Amino acid sequence: MASQMTYNRNEEQRGFWARILRLPEKRSTPPEFGGPLAPSRPTFASHVTPDSAMTISAVYRAVSLLSGHVSQLPVGVWRGDTEVPSPALVTKPDVNSTQTAFKQMTTVSLATSGNAYWRVYRESPTAKIQNLQVLNPHSMTIEQDLKSGKLTYRYHDERGDYTFQDWQIKHLSLMRIPGSLYGIGPIQAAQAELRGTLDLRDYASNWFRSGGVPTGVLKTDQALTPDQATAYRERWESLASAGRGVAVLGNGMGYQPVHLNPADAQFLESQQFSITQIARMFGVPAGKLLAEVNGNSMTYTNLESANTDFVRDTLTSYLIEIEEALSDLIPRGSVVRFKVDALLRADKATRYATYSTALASGFMTVDEIRKEEGLPPMPLTERPKEVLTE
Question: Helix or strand or coil: residue 275?
């Protein structure tokens, strides 16, 4: 038996999840006497790639929100309970890019593929790390030696093929599946929902281009022969194609345009449901996708609660993965943490009321409060007398 086992990405996608999602679809028998049919779908639904999923506006918005929130959060380094100066590998992981771009590309990789790969530039496993680079996760395959368990990473881009050892790549995963070398993300786990959304969008688009819906109806109370009906139609179409102007119709002929109500024309209810599904897939509040949730009236209080839940239940998965990956690459004893307080802060009035209570109770000082607000210590000459005696 060969000692090398190759995990090809296409084969990986035909694993447990893909086998479930690609089962032949049970189709109901078409109506015997005609009637409207649902949009047709092939027996085996085609695989939804990250590129095609990103053409769905709600998916793009969800990935943009996730990467935007993570990229804007400041990062610090702690040794024990004390924050220490951050090394260059944390302040600027990639010398050819910004820290913000590095965090954004990592988050986009995790959200769209369930994996992120950092190219670690160093001469040996124990040598100092010179640089980190985010690689395209869709161009990476992993091989594992069955005897030693050693991993080899193979990467392909427009410049050629590359082979990396495990100490040259830092692999991050959003959700790990036992027995698989690859993580999975929302797009890989929710193929059926995304395929339905793409089918619905394409069906709505084709409805107007080739759906057999006339733009209008010419009608009269007089009997017409087939030749007369054809002549009237051709005459009207020639007038309409000539542009705006005055149309003259005779013999009691009238034109009535065909209007579709918004619910029929844009499939609003179905599209709204698709947005809700995508919000659930990515763990993003539907309101953040600019979607209206029926029966849900957002007030400031529950909006703030939704933001807290979003950070705790969704963003944390991305933040912890990046924190632990960076912590593994800096000197032992130091840990990297995102400063999420900015996302969880209450409004100014609530914060100031809390500070007032803390100051009156004596468990916070003015300088500690100012530090929380990102302000420098107050000069002694500017302090009120009651503060000087605290």
Answer: helix
